Amino acid sequence: MSEAPETSPATSRRTLLCGAAAVLAAGGTVAVTGCSSSAGSSAPSSAPKGPVDLGPASAIPEGGGKVFREQKIVVTQPTAGQYKAFSAKCTHAGCIVDQVKKEQIQCPCHGSRFGIADGAVQDGPAPSPLPAYTVTVEGGNLKVTPS
Question: Tens digit of pLDDT for each residue in 69-78?
Answer without folding.
Answer: 999 999 999 9
